[in-house]
Amino acid sequence: MLHLEHVAKNFGGLPALCEVGFEVKAGQLTALIGPNGAGKTTLINCITGILQPDSGNIRFRGQNLVGLAAHQISHLGIARTFQNLKIFPRLTVLDNVLAGLTVQGGNSLLMAMLRLPYLRHRERRLKLQALDSLDRFQLSAKADWPAGILSYGDRKRLEMARAAVSEPHLLLLDEPVAGLNSEETAAIAEQLRILRSAGHTMLLVEHDMDLVMSIADEVIVLDSGRCIASGTPDEVRRNPLVLEAYLGTMEATA
């Protein structure tokens, strides 16, 4: 579904990504791991059009994403969450999720002002779709709450509900369990398993190695902007380059 070839990105002459290449297979959960500063979020930003790579190709379902704006990539069926939460605190929980359906809501001011019957029908359909996503992430009871009063764990789930509501072809998750306790992490892990069993394709950026190794179908490892290993969790766990660059450090401090 997603194919990266020789992707490179520099900031002020310093390489953040160097010739990165890998694939994300349809229907699988692929994890992207690596130490802080390895280039993981930079890569996600290049995939979603927030940043443009300096060279290389990023193909999604056969179409090259390089040069496309973020909204164009969203229309192709890619959704994401952010490492730093991006919610609208003064909007309700439901309205935050409805924001994830903007691309399905139409963009004609005149049609919105006319309030034609089919538009009202579409609004009802989108609201039901948003409520279904909230129910999936166990937030339906808080649909009318201002998002700003949610706990940190609920805000994480809200951002995932908003990203998943449009049923994207590819869901990019940037550290969804960062800052969560063990119980909250277990709940997110179960929701990720449910999404995968429903056929969602996901690229997960995460530092929690227990989570990654328990749910990922394939693991890609970045170190200093380079892809140093890829394979199943067991293969990556035994790779000496990975142990030296990342996993060994994590195990030593666990």
Q: Which fold does the CATH topology of the largest domain refer to?
A: Rossmann fold
DSSP summary, beta strand count: 10
Q: Roughly how much helix do the residues carry, as a percent range? A: 40-55%
Give the CATH class of the largest domain: Alpha Beta
> What composes the largest sheet?
6 strands, mixed
Kindly name the structural category.
Answer: alpha/beta
Name of the CATH architecture of the largest domain? 3-Layer(aba) Sandwich
| CATH homologous superfamily title of the largest domain | P-loop containing nucleotide triphosphate hydrolases
Element-by-element helix/strand order: EEEHEEHEHHHHEHEHEEHH
What report would you give on this structure?
It is a single chain. The radius of gyration is 19 Å and the shape is globular. Helix 5 (about 115-135) crosses helix 6. The protein is built from 10 helices and 10 strands. It starts with a strand and ends with a helix. About 40% of the residues lie in helices and about 25% in strands. It folds into 2 domains: about 1-75 and about 170-254, Rossmann fold, CATH 3.40.50.300; about 90-165, no CATH class. Strands 6-7-8-3-9-10 form a 6-stranded mixed beta sheet, with helices on both faces. It is of the alpha/beta class and about 250 residues long.
